[in-house]
Structures are given as C-alpha cells and as structure tokens.
Design brief:
There is one protein chain. With 129 residues, the protein is α/β, with parallel strands linked by helices. The chain is built from four helices and five strands, in the order ββαβαβαβα. It is 34% helix and 29% strand. It is globular, with a radius of gyration of 14 Å.
Length: 129
C-alpha cells in the first residue's frame, strides 16, 4: 500500500491529496492519519481528493458508508472536492459517498483538477488559485 501524495497550497487554502494505483479502505485510513502530520496542514483548507490515477479501488458498501459517516478530518465548513473520471467505477463510488455524506459535509464531484480549481474559485471568489 502506498500513501497518497499530499500537496498543501497554504496561500490558496487548498490541500490536494492524490491517490494512485490500487487503493482500499486501509489506504484511506493510513492517508487520513498521515495527512494530519503534514507540515502546514490545516483542517480549514478546501480538500481535493484526486482519484484520476487510481487503477483499482476495493471498497465495500460498508467501507464507503464508514468513510462517509466518519468524523471528518477537515472542518465541516471546508468543502471536499472529489476528482474522478466520469463514467468510471471511482465515479460511482464518489457519487455513493457524496449521497451518504450529504448534510455532514459539502462534497463536489468533478472530472479534473482544473474543474476542482474552478469550484474553489466559485466557492471562494477572493481565492487566487
């Protein structure tokens, strides 16, 4: 299992978490723990989860529900943006996650990092990202 790559853009208030290869529930759990130890990390930042380089995802319905209902690492007011290829299996999982997380956090699903940045700009008009 490899941990996701994390990029913190403090000036823009964004954390980008890039997943690649085969991922499972343990990848999320370990990544969640590692993220909080990253220098410059803040729970207030918009968090972008990039799944565009994922080749396989092994999550049961129960695992998706557990992730969606777990106490968030980020503040409830911090938007969560999921980057997934439209029509992919990851897209279906992202939609299920968003439905389960509704009311607990603000989740947006997009097809690219450029689209994610557009959502950030729309949510935070003063952002320079």
């Amino acid at each position: 299992m490899s941990l996701p790559a994390v990029t913190i853009e403090a000036n823009a208030g964004i954390v980008v978490i890039r997943f690649a290869g085969d991922i499972d529930l343990q990848t999320f759990v370990a990544g969640r723990e590692a993220l909080q130890k990253e220098p410059g990390w803040s729970s207030r930042y918009v968090h972008v989860f990039d799944f565009s380089a994922v080749t396989d995802i092994d999550l049961s319905k129960d695992a998706i529900e557990a992730l969606a209902t777990a106490p968030p690492v980020f503040d409830k007011s911090a938007p969560q943006i999921l980057v997934v290829r439209d029509g992919s299996f990851e897209f279906a999982i992202a939609r299920a996650f968003a439905a389960l997380a509704r009311g607990r956090r603000s989740v947006h699903i997009v097809g690219s990092l450029d689209e994610a940045r557009a959502v950030v700009r729309a949510l935070r008009p003063s952002s320079t990202s």
